[in-house]
Amino acid sequence: MTTVPVVRIRNALVAAMQEDIEDRSALELADRLANEVAANGASMVLLDVSAAQVVDSFISRVIVDIARVCRLLGAQVTVVGMRPAVAITLVELGLTLDGVRTALTIDDAMTALEDGAGADAWRV
Amino acid sequence: MVPAASRIVLSTIEKSVGSPVQESQEQLVPQTQIRALMAEVLAQRRRQVLEAWVTRGGTIAGNGAAEDLQRDGAAVLSALGTALSGRNGRLDLAPVSRLLSDFSARRTRSGDRPEQTAGLVLALREAVLTELAGTGDPDDRFDAAREAARIVDELALGSFDSFLSGREEVISEQGAQLLELSTPVVRVWDRVVAAPLVGTLDSARAQVVMESLLQAISDDRALVAILDITGVPTVDTLVAQHLLKTVAATRLMGADCIVSGIAPQTAQTMVQLGIDLSEVTTRASLADALALAIARVAAHTDRSIRP
User: Which residues of chain B neighbour A114 with C-beta distances below 8 Å?
Assistant: First the structure.
């Protein structure tokens, strides 16, 4: 099983998912992120899926779960850099990652989250 | 690309070509002998046959038909000769058919009508019959003429078929071009892309729009994507579903999507149909949507340059 690397940048945790995410490594990542946020605190968790060629229903459910768990622990989760093809597939499957923030790049995600004003703030 | 219907036609041709053994049992003179006679005529009098063919063909179709025949006819005749003198008694017209198909396709592109293309091939019958008239003994001549007519008819059918598939190719190419032309995605501001949709939005087009919009978001690092439906005449439940899918996909990519250009009439229809776009940011005009998008990008940039 390959472990997903998690890097801490100040108060953000960045997890870079590989090309082909195994179910077990996704579950292990969820565990590790929850523990890390609970133990050392973090205000944002960024899931970088830009390398992922395939995101199936299981992985997308794990992502939604990670978002819910981390929010309970006080961190905002953002999915970063999804490929067009992956986005189309997820939409066709009806998996729209409700309740999870999204951003094009890690930079954008950090900008949007820094003062707590997410993408929702501008919606009138 | 050969459409299904014409594939059936082709296979029936091959079948009828591939069953000479059964037919030969009914005839007094073995078919191989007739074919040998025809091959002989073709070999000895090829120049005359070609000449007659070109003369007749030139009157049927203009626009360089005679020159085309002069150039390609010789190859066709020699292929036909080879097919006729086939040793194992099988008549394999496929090579001749291929040559004629190419020829017909070229003629189609130069603007020939279907009857002209078929007529060019059928002109070969007259040319061959004229040459057959002066050879062999009278009994064989009738059988040979019949066989020649049958072969040319098959070839003409094949060339008509390739005329059709040539036309269909042109049509499908134009369809694809139209699809690309009608779904442009333009970068209208720094980190803002817009897709002005014109015409009816069916599943195929919706798919193309979604793909090109997402690709543009990825390429231009867009923060906001605007879907302008001013040019879409009707928005029914299916179109609304396509719009919602596109909006969801843009969100997954990390960009925001604004749907603009909903006409008052369209808005009323959508409400009556019970289409729920409450999850989607909408604006009446493209100008309003662009203003919102620029404000969004500005807010984002302000945050990112703050120390």
Answer: 303
